[in-house]
Amino acid sequence: MRRLPIFMLLDVSESMAGDNLRQLQHGLERLVAGLRTDPHALETVHLSTIVFAGQARTLAPLTELAHFYPPRLPLGSGTSLGRGMQHLMDELDRSIQPNTPERKGDWRPVIYLMTDGKPTDDIEPALKRWRERYAARATLVAIAVGKFAAIDVLQRFTETVLRLDAQAEQDFRRFVDWVTMSVVAQSRSVAEPRAGVNLAKIDESILKKIGDIENGLNVDEDLVVLTGRCQNNRLPYLMRYERVPAAARTRQFGMELDLYQLAGVFALEADYDALSDDRALVRTVSTDALIGSPGCPHCGNPTAFAMCSCGALMCIRGSGPALCPSCDRECDFGECGGDGFDVARSRG
Ligand SMILES: [Zn+2]
Ligand SMILES: [Zn+2]
Description:
Elements: E1 4-11, H1 19-36, H2 39-44, E2 45-52, E3 56-64, H3 81-95, E4 110-115, H4 124-134, E5 139-145, H5 151-157, E6 161-164, H6 169-189, E7 207-209, E8 223-229, E9 236-243, E10 260-267, H7 271-275, E11 284-286, E12 290-291, E13 303-307, E14 313-316, E15 320-323, E16 330-333, E17 342-344
Parallel strand pairs: 1-2, 1-4, 4-5, 5-6, 8-14, 10-12
Antiparallel strand pairs: 2-3, 6-7, 8-9, 9-10, 11-17, 13-14, 15-16
Bound molecules: zinc ion (ZN) (2 copies).
The site of one zinc ion (ZN) has 7 residues, from loops.
């Protein structure tokens, strides 16, 4: 039986922290469970899961559906779409069986790429490689999640770009069911001579095919994600701040200030570092713009927002000496002075 290879290429950058990642995790499980109920899919579909943040990694190599178990999705810092695509192409080279005179190879692979941000790396080398060697023999379905995804970049890789606007959990489930139905449709039609990808009928309320109208409609990012490290167990955590809508802001000194409200704090595992970008953080935000300071999600220290002179954030119990988990230096925290300081913003 010839295989139908399906690759899930998933953005697991910090902006996915919280509900988004949880939904994606459940979505992957629902996809596998749904596909397993279809005899055509069971016969042909092979699945692989690749994630990218600052780095890219294969979580599950191409595996037949019956033996595929959805991996736990990690998080990392950065949105290196270029690296993600390069990794995908390496994986295609490694796992796709070509046609030979003796044997029919795999069916045309289908890649579902999901991302919610703008690339933080140079995509041009990956784009060149993709267009020259892969675009003609693989199908890429790009799904832009939310309103901050770089649709114009995705359109350079593929004609098939969809925007997912899932407001509620059930919207996301309907989206996963759409992916399931699309894969099933593909598994039934592979033997037909007509080339191209088969997608299930699009539910316009959650999923929109991107036409020319939306070109250049990229909205400014309105999310600040800061990374800190627990003093006690040295594990990283994320603090997510969302921009306060302009209408809700007060004007100070006749100047419009960007304000960000704390929206969540998330404990991370050690694998965060391995998936993160090793380049220096460049964007900064003033603490004056941030509303709300969380406690540490690892150890419960009341302040997760203490900054060492090395620039790293850590959790502290209160004022007094503390050991920075990032640089191992002792620092002393006095009572809070009123002045804001600039903290390095993590790449989305
Ligand atoms: Zn802590
Ligand atoms: Zn330090």
